[in-house]
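Structure representation:
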Amino acid sequence: MTPALAHIDTWIFDLDNTLYPASTDLFGLIDVRMGTFIQTLLGVDPVEARRIQKSYFIEHGTTLSGLMQAHGVDPHLFPIAPIEAA
């Protein structure tokens, strides 16, 4: 684990809609937010952002991990804070 995440001792993942009902479409909302973040960060169109998002997920295990490794993205900014275009 990276030193920046070493202080976290508990992770909660809602993979089976226990915390949020399926009707909230939480994963769909996250997917859209990730795409928008990638578009803004890299200055690409939605189709290219989607391709990057899915390739990083496959290659790195998570989209965020791929963005951190390939583009030096600060995980504290992803995908919560708005960013300036690259």
About this structure: Residues 64 and 77 are 10 Å apart (CA to CA). The radius of gyration is 14 Å.
